[in-house]
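R.M. (postdoc): so does anyone remember the format we settled on? I'll just put the structure tokens first.
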């Protein structure tokens, strides 16, 4: 069972938890950590001989063209994480279409490859954005991995399927939700984030074994470059809950990631989307 490995490429100051205290207009003046962190991730993936998908902000691609080319030259998939991390449900249909079009053009110009995958910032496609998949299909995306079928304080679409589905009639567009685990009567996003970084690694291993063994489906895992960076600048004035969530266990993250990569089989999201369409969706139809 080959699972999907993904990195959401944004810098430490672009996370949703800090949007109330860091002004977007200040971004260009803040210390850049994304290049060194992504290069470290590329080295880890090379050492583990694994390929992955890098869902990257257009804002980052515009400033770091050589990094985009290093990702592609190493055999990874470059995909879109939107322009500047505006969550989809805060945009209307027109603004969302402009956001994803602008991001894709800059990613394609920087890398020289076609962009066919999309991940919404903070898994922000949900019941409030019924137009989002129409926009992605119109713009030629093959798949999206933008849904968390859970309830969470920042995100979640409880009614969404847990595994790959086709959100539109008459379109091949595939949605691959982030992996969830049912634990103590709750459904949790078990494909990364605080679940992976804050809880002991054994929880994540258990969750992925459940998905692969009991559900017999591939897991989808994600992390961020800032999660492996204990030396990132600290954000004063952020809410305590955000700071706890953001800074816990950063120094242990790289070792945990290496363990995860070695304990399971991983690959790119575009390949996972094609396999899911063939093996799960087309056969069921
Ligand atoms: Zn993100």
């Amino acid at each position: 069972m080959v699972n999907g490995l993904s990195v959401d490429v944004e810098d430490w100051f672009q996370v949703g938890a800090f949007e109330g205290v860091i002004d977007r207009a200040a971004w260009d003046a803040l210390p850049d950590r994304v290049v060194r962190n992504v290069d470290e991730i590329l080295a880890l993936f090379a050492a583990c001989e694994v390929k992955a998908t890098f869902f990257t902000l257009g804002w980052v691609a515009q400033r770091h063209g050589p990094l985009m080319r290093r990702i592609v030259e190493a055999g990874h998939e470059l995909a879109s994480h939107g322009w500047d991390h505006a969550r989809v449900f805060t945009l209307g249909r027109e603004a969302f279409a402009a956001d994803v079009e602008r991001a894709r053009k800059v990613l394609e110009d920087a890398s020289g490859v076609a962009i066919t995958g999309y991940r919404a910032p903070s898994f922000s496609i949900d019941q409030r954005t019924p137009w989002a998949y129409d926009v992605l299909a119109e713009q030629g995306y093959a798949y999206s991995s933008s849904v968390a079928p859970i309830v969470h304080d920042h995100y979640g679409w409880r009614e969404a399927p847990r595994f790959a589905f086709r959100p539109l009639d008459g379109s091949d567009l595939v949605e691959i939700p982030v992996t969830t685990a049912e634990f103590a009567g709750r459904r949790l996003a078990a494909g990364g984030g605080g679940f992976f970084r804050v809880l002991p690694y054994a929880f994540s291993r258990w969750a992925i074994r459940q998905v692969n063994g009991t559900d017999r489906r591939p897991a989808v895992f994600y992390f961020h470059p800032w999660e492996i960076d204990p030396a990132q600048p600290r954000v004063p004035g952020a809410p305590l809950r955000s700071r706890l969530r953001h800074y816990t266990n950063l120094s242990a993250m790289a070792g945990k990631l290496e363990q995860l990569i070695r304990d399971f089989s991983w690959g790119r999201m575009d390949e996972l989307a094609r396999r899911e369409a063939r093996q799960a969706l087309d056969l069921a139809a």
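R.M.: ...and that's the designed sequence above, right after the tokens. Also worth knowing: The CA atoms of residues 53 and 77 lie 5 Å apart. Residues 93-111 form the longest helix (19 residues).
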